[in-house]
Amino acid sequence: MSDCNTRIIAPSVLASDWGKVGEEVRRADEAGADWLHLDVMDGHFVENISFGPQFVGAVRPHTELTLDVHLMITRPDKYLPMFIKAGADRITVHVEADHDVSATLKSIREAGLRCGLALNPATPFEDVVPYLDQIDLLLVMTVVPGFGGQSFMEKETMPKVAAAKEFREANGLAYHIEVDGGIDQETVKIAGENGANVMVAGTSLYGKPDMKSAIEEMRG
Ligand code: DX5
Ligand code: ZN
Fold this sequence. Notes:
Elements: E1 8-11, H1 21-30, E2 35-41, H2 53-59, E3 66-72, H3 76-86, E4 90-94, H4 101-110, E5 114-119, E6 137-141, H5 154-170, E7 176-180, H6 187-194, E8 198-201, H7 203-206, H8 211-219
Parallel strand pairs: 1-8, 2-3, 3-4, 4-5, 5-6, 6-7, 7-8
Helix pairs in contact: 2-3, 3-4
Bound molecules: D-xylitol-5-phosphate (DX5) and zinc ion.
């Protein structure tokens, strides 16, 4: 288990060529990615529909990489068993979704997986504070979730990353701090300086012909 001071690079499969997903997953693996980030969208919690547990299951046999599943769905509790069965290693749910957050986080851990909690740019850091001692990862969204290729929202989100780091250290906790959305070889520096250590990137990694050097550059 990597600690929360190790930089982790997690390409987002959302930005890959789904028509050859096995090849694209292996490309990330061979390029030196640490985790693979899978963006699940239900067209209700966010204004887009991406893929579900069957797609996660299709990805699973192509890599040993940690599958970091990000549920941008209204009822993560209801669909949890399907993502666990599909082979997720980590499951992150949104604080804004319609569920008992603590119960969902507990269920993820009881299944032997690592649990994460995500908050959107408009959600205040205070909304996640009650759960910070129940998580393995905090995902601070750096775009409004739903689509790849958007711009990094520094002003709205970096203070929350810094607050999450401060809270973790002040309370002897050990959760990863992950950022997702508009992370490229430049914005990754800002996110790192503020305290993020897990960098999700779609466009800036899958959009590059040489993913290996793009990842190395992102490691800093
Ligand atoms: C939410 C998604 C995207 C994706 C990354 O919309 O979670 O943020 O992972 O997209 P890029 O790296 O292309 O902004
Ligand atoms: Zn994501």
